[in-house]
Amino acid sequence: xxxxxxxxxxxxIHPGFAILSIGAVMFDLEKQELGxxxxxxxxxxxxxxxGLKFDPNTETWWSEQTEDARAAAWSGTE
Length: 78
Fold this sequence. Notes:
By secondary structure, the protein is α+β, with helices and mostly antiparallel strands. It has three helices and three strands.
């Protein structure tokens, strides 16, 4: 598989905001098949140690999402 899609979930829409999770998946465009996957939740405290910020408006947006979406995105929280 020669293609890779990467996605991040964040707490802000500009550079310098905290990252909640990073995911990636390998895929074959011609065969329309998915391959190896990667997912890592990021602990909020590690973002703070590197000076990344939490946007209150984005935190409000996350609070309005489904419970499943919040659980998946915020799984690095304690």
